[in-house]
Amino acid sequence: MSDDVFGTAGIRERVLAGWSAAPVRFREDANAEEDLALGGYVDRLVIELAQNAADAAARAGVPGRVLYEFRGSTLVVANTGTPLSAEGVESLATLRASAKRDEPTVGRFGVGFSAVLAVTDEPVILSRTGGVRFSKADTAAAIAGLGSAGLDTEVRRRDGQVPVLRLPFEAEGEPPEGYDTAVILPLRDEAAAALVRRLLAEAGDALLLALPGLERIEIETDEGRRVLQDAESRWWIHRAAGVFDDLERETLLADRPVEERSRPNWSVLWALPRHEVAVGESSGGGVELPGVVQAPTPTDEPLSLPALLSASFPLDPTRRHVAKGPLADRLVWEAAKAYGELVRERAGAGGDVLHLVPTGLAAGALDGALRDEIGKVLPGTPMVRAVEDGVLLRPRDAVVVEGADDAFNRVLAPIVRGLIRSPRQDRLALDALQVRRFELAEVVDQLGGVAADEPPEWWRNLYGSLAGMVTDALLRESLGTLPVPLADGRLVRGARGLLLPRPEIPTDNLAAFGEYGVRVVHPEAVDPALERLGALPATPRTLLEDSAVRTAVEHSIEADDPDAIAHAVLSLVAADPSQADGLWWLSDLVLRDADGDHVPANALVVPGSEAEAVLDDEEVAPVAREVLDRYGQPALEAVGVLATLGLVTSSDVALDQLPEALKDLDGIEDWAYDVAPDGSRYGATVGELLAIRDLDWITGDAWPRVLELLGSSPELRRALVTQVRVVGPDDRPLGVPSYAAWWIRDRVLLDDGEPLAGRADPDAEPVLATFLDDAPEWTAGLDPEVRTAVGLVREVGDLDADGLSLLLERLADPDREVEEVDLLRLWRHLGTLSLFPGDAPDHVRVLADDGLTRVTDAGRAVVVDGPMWLQRADLGGFVVASGAAADGLSDLFDVPMAQEVAEGKIDGPGTAADVPAIVRELVPGVPPTWWEHEELTVDGVEVSWWVDAGGAPHAATFDGLAKALAWASGRWDQRHVIRAVLNEPDRSSELLIDAAYD
């Protein structure tokens, strides 16, 4: 084709003339084209050429097909539809002048072809009607040929850059077979090729959906061939369109360009992937949510909704953003209504649509406006299904029950109008839809009224529906007032503490307790969920623990038929006596005694038992034989009937608030005062207290047998001999006598009227036994730990305060003869005691000169804690001990230490002398120097040796020197060795040899 069918020469001539006449027009055209190429159209090549193809197909009324063939460094884009015309060429060469002014097509600006400048400087268009090309190089040559100094200057200022699309040139060639037009783009460089590859790879269903005039897009590259078609098979589509009337045009299009005002059409398309796809991700097959608004080609306006939106929004000059104004606001509203219809359609088809409800933060201003309008539309759109019948409800008419799962919802649906499912993941969506929320506790609370007449089977179904909810602690709390039908016909609130009937519990037992308020769930309403809500299986134990059963037992003496109560309780206990462990109040159950009278179990004994033998028959009576035979001794013992001495156990006992279980123990308050730290029960606790009951009912002559019994029974023995651990307010533990040990020590008297406690144990130390009363001969056969627990004294450490007072009193009796060795042994033990008598003794036994001892006034005695003070007879009678024992005796007798009454000052300096080397070798630590005195006096009293306050030894004799050196070195046990060396130096070798084995 050599003819210039499109009049390109004339176009060039007019343009060049205009530029030549006014070079500023050249500058304006160059700037405008550059803005388009480098700005709004830099990455829109594929989209804009597809848009042109869609417009051409629409004008021709034929199915639109586009081929993108990318080989080597050339991109060919061929399409079907109206071929190129002279008007079209002029439009291409005239920026912002569209050849589609009066057509309802996608392209509305006439400048989309400038997108090719992002990749080429030499675009060519071949059509069945002819061809045209544009060339940067030819345009520059044409300008140079004009010889216009002004144009040449403009070109130089632009570094040779000239507009490409203003001067068309004729071109020869044909489009590929089957197509009407082809655009041929020789790519500028590798960067252009990379851009083309990316844009072709990104092409997908969004392109077909935005351009309904296209039914097929083929993409062929060196990597392979891809076909885009039948997009609507992969998307749920909803379209809306209309034409503005004259008033709307005047209002909405007033601020739009003239050409737009001539096109009053609007359209909205929403597309939802048939398979869930996240925004910005692809599932393959062209299905991808671009995450931006299409208008109808992609903009830079972000879209956070999980759908594709293509609408005829007005755009700013860059075609990147929606232009604000009344037209955009109207289209936002139309888009919101269309979105609501899409949601309604999908909900009607059975789809889950709550994920389509916008929640969270908007991605941009336009996205926020869309979400706001959609938020107004959806609450009035039928889109959520009623649980009861599946009918679609408007969210504003629906309700959810907080925390209810599907099973519970199905039970509630008939009585809660408009109830819908409320999965936890949909909470934000339901809130955005303004769905009313009922708190679970509120609904549960109302069930007692709206479902009060429902049969027990209905309630069982309701409880069964809670199986998935009762595992959640918070939901269990909300279900705390759930109504429950009882076997007696009542409907009570709350399952906690109710009893669930079990087959092993006889119904007559339940009936016996029913009149006392035992709350048993109706058998036809029982479900495992009730147990998770706090109901208790009616085992013998749970039934016995029920407060109503306790009330029945404690008031059984007043019952119309005490025997019925006794039978109900004993039938439960007889099956497993351990079920009664710790239920101390069962001992209030009245049973018949041998005379047929009703007596509390704790005042009955088993005939012929140890208990009957040792307890006062005025306090206890034998249980009726028929009762014993019917229920068995283990059951009777479990409820408190005594076969031996009974025990009471209590845990976490506060001594200032003793539990009811201990209140009947004789003297328990006195025991608590006596064992409390510092005599104050406040804040003192006992972790576990095991006490022997009824000690005050034991007859006086039975104690030998009782104590033997206490030693032979492991439980009774433990209750007697094991100390109780009392923890004071300062958290320090203290071991104290058990209640039984305290009671026996305090209250058991022998035939002579004196206590058993405090007497000499049969195995007591002989010297100690001489000062104490003898225990009865029968105590010799008792367990030694039992003897100690009841207060018999085997050693000084077993004395209590009263026993210690008695010992000190008898020790100070001048009519008693006490040998020195026995007294020294007693002093050693007494000095380590931590208890003291109420008052210090007035008289004290001290050492005498004849190897015996004597009694003196306490004011004329001193405690001597060092051997050198034994030389000071001037200080008074001596109480001898060392270390801590000396301090203890000083406190016990209220007698001063010797150094507290005498200064112990040496009167003369003495003469320094060296300690013999052999002494230092035999006894390391001996001072190297000692001070010799002709006559040594201390405080004016003559002595043979002394060690002064500085640790220096002084002596007047060899024997005194040996003692002084031994005491000064802390080796008092070596005084005899030192003396031997000093007196017999020739024995030094012998002593050194012996010392090798020390």
Descriptive overview:
By secondary structure, the chain is α+β, with helices and mostly antiparallel strands. The protein is built from 39 helices and 41 strands. Strands 5-4-3-6-2-1-7-8 form an 8-stranded mixed beta sheet. The longest helix has 23 residues, at 326-348. The protein is elongated and about 160 Å long. The relative contact order is 0.03.
List keywords for this structure.
39 helices; alpha+beta; 998 residues; four-stranded antiparallel sheet; eight-stranded mixed sheet; 41 strands; 17% strand
Strand content: 15-25%
What is the strand tally?
A: 41
Strand order of the largest sheet: 5-4-3-6-2-1-7-8
Helix and strand content put the structural class at alpha+beta
Quaternary structure state of the chains depicted: single chain
Mean pLDDT score, rounded?
A: 89
General form? elongated
Strand and helix map with partners:
Blueprint: H1 8-21, H2 23-38, H3 45-60, E1 64-71, E2 74-79, H4 86-92, E3 124-127, E4 130-134, H5 136-146, H6 149-157, E5 168-171, E6 181-186, H7 190-202, H8 205-210, E7 214-221, E8 224-229, E9 235-243, H9 246-252, H10 258-261, E10 265-273, E11 282-284, E12 287-288, E13 292-294, E14 298-302, E15 308-311, H11 326-348, H12 365-377, E16 384-385, E17 392-393, E18 399-401, H13 406-412, H14 427-432, E19 436-438, H15 440-450, H16 456-464, H17 473-478, E20 483-485, E21 491-493, E22 499-500, H18 507-514, H19 528-532, E23 536-537, H20 540-545, H21 547-554, H22 562-575, E24 590-592, E25 598-600, E26 604-605, H23 610-614, E27 621-622, H24 625-631, H25 633-638, E28 647-654, H26 668-675, E29 685-692, H27 703-712, H28 714-721, E30 724-727, E31 733-736, H29 739-747, H30 766-769, H31 784-789, H32 801-811, H33 820-830, E32 843-847, E33 853-857, E34 861-864, E35 877-880, H34 883-893, H35 898-901, E36 911-914, H36 917-922, E37 929-932, E38 936-938, E39 941-943, E40 945-947, E41 953-955, H37 958-968, H38 975-983, H39 988-995
Parallel strand pairs: 1-7, 18-19, 22-23, 26-27, 34-35, 37-41
Antiparallel strand pairs: 1-2, 2-6, 3-4, 3-6, 4-5, 7-8, 9-10, 10-15, 11-12, 13-14, 16-17, 20-21, 24-25, 28-29, 29-30, 30-31, 32-33, 36-37, 38-39, 40-41
